Amino acid sequence: DRSSPVFDDGLSYDLLPSGWRKIVKLRRFFPRLHHGNVELRTAYLDQTVGGIIDSIPDDHKIRLICMGAGYDTRGVKMLERKRVEEVVELDLESVVCGKQRLFDRLIKRRPWLKELRMPTLVPCDFNDVEDVKNKLQTVVNLNGKEGCSNDKDGCEWHAIFVFEGVMIYLDEGVPSALLDVTSTVLKKSNLAGSLCFADRLENVPGGDIDMGMKELEGNGWRVKDWCPKPGLARHMGSAELLVA
């Protein structure tokens, strides 16, 4: 739908299995219910991530880290549009395996993607916070040594973490712990970073910005934008790394 703010030139359609592509062609018969809510948060995240990218100095490389990416196409879209240098997506092993198969088919439908470094898919159970921490520590240092923010070419990296509709499925205490983990691994590796989210933060029952600021600052992030909406994943916003 070219009128949609999240129009991706057929990328999402090309990712779908053949059977689902036939069903999607009938979209005019489906009412825009939950679809509109997902479209809203997708548009917000795309715009917010894009704004952060525009603010980063040209001599920095950008690594987009999608937490619980599912079958979302944001990572491929950002690579295809040359907005980021690298994408890492973390999700359950079953999801990662399924998405890799979809990627293999996607490249056949969009052969120019062979020239890109497709997203790195990392299997991970977010309820195992220590495992998440270890894998993220590896992810943020893919191009350098621990404690060093530069790669072999002397270029600094900026990491952008994205959470979209994943915290609502996690065990109590885990969403806050993951926010703390993301900021901690960046600080440990002396890396710059940003956070974008369309999810449900813990300890913030409504859309109160003061409670949102407290939750984020308590886990190493300073709010830059706050835009609550209806639905389960009601908290949308962005934050910068809180450095003492």
Brief summary of the model shown:
The chain has 244 residues and is of the alpha/beta class. The protein has 8 helices and 7 strands, in the order αααβαβαβαβαβαββ.
Description:
There is one protein chain. The N and C termini lie far apart (about 45 Å). The chain has eight helices and seven strands. Strands 3-2-1-4-5-7-6 form a seven-stranded mixed β-sheet, sandwiched between helices. The protein has helices at about 10-15, 20-25, 35-55, 75-80, 95-110, 130-140, 175-190, 210-215, and strands at about 60-65, 85-90, 120-125, 155-165, 190-200, 220-225, 235-240. Mean pLDDT is about 90; it is low at about 145-150. The chain is α/β, with parallel strands linked by helices and about 240 residues long. It is globular. Helix 6 runs parallel beside helix 7.
Can you give the helix content as a percent range? Answer: 25-40%
Strand content: 15-25%
Main sheet record: 7 strands, mixed
| Low-pLDDT ranges | 144-150
How many E-type strands?
Answer: 7
SS-derived structural category = alpha/beta
Rg, alpha carbons: 18 Å
- The arrangement of helices and strands along the chain is HHHEHEHEHEHEHEE
Whole-number mean pLDDT: 88
Number of helices: 8
Shape: globular
